[in-house]
Design goal:
Helices cover about 10% and strands about 30% of the residues. The protein contains 2 helices and 12 strands. The strands form 2 sheets. Strands 1, 2, 3, 5, 8, 10, 11 and 12 form an 8-stranded antiparallel beta sheet that branches. β11 and β12 form a beta hairpin. It is globular and about 45 Å long.
Length: about 210
């Protein structure tokens, strides 16, 4: 499974979280990891019955929280994300390839996602080394930019190669990502990432 889009959530009340903040990583407030540690409401949504159902469907009855992240691109902002797969940014980048765990990313689209605004684009290939992230050609064969609307939820595996370009539109592009795994990946990975068990025997364990 590479990608699934479904109209699952209603983003209007999320707008307050997608505004400039005076904290963040890499691009100041624009890319903020572990955002749910700042806002209880986000943690409650990340661990809701809705998300439990999605995670249970793809990972089974045992699952763990790892990370959540806002990615915000302002109008006409040159803010690309290079090709990568999400498992690379964990404590065990090759673990899913080698059968040690499974992971999924769920993505709440808070604004339109398309080619004009630097929307997410995908290439369903398995990659196992850092050099594979350094693909520069935006016209690479078999690449598809997802056309999603506010309220859609995207789901992809931790081994799904994806990237995005800068925002060439006149509106902000905002997404909220959540990462779940079948084993704890946060312990020993940088600082402050989750290693909490989310599902135990199919039920919410928090």
């Amino acid at each position: 499974m590479a990608l699934k889009i479904g109209n699952e959530i209603y983003p209007d009340h999320m707008a307050k979280f997608a505004q400039p903040k005076d904290f963040g990583s890499t691009h100041h407030w624009k890319t903020m990891d572990m955002y749910s540690t700042q806002y209880l409401e986000l943690f409650q949504m990340m661990t809701s019955d809705l998300m439990a159902g999605i995670v249970r469907e793809y990972l089974g009855p045992e699952a763990y929280l790892f990370n959540d992240q806002f990615v915000i691109k302002q109008p006409m902002e040159d803010y690309p994300f290079p090709w990568h797969f999400d498992n690379f940014y964990t404590s065990d980048p090759k673990g899913e390839f080698e059968g040690r765990y499974q992971a999924i990313t769920t993505c709440w689209f808070l604004t339109p996602n398309n080619i004009d605004c630097g929307g997410l684009r995908f290439l369903a290939l398995d990659k196992t080394s850092k050099k594979d992230f350094e693909i520069k050609d935006p016209n690479i064969e078999n690449t598809e930019t997802i056309d999603a609307q506010p309220g859609d939820v995207g789901i992809w595996t931790g081994n799904t190669l994806h990237s995005s370009e800068g925002n060439g539109s006149d509106f902000q592009r905002s997404i909220w990502l959540q990462v779940y795994s079948s084993i704890p990946l946060g312990k020993g990975w940088r600082s402050g990432y989750y290693d909490k068990q989310f599902l135990r025997n199919g039920e919410i364990a928090l």
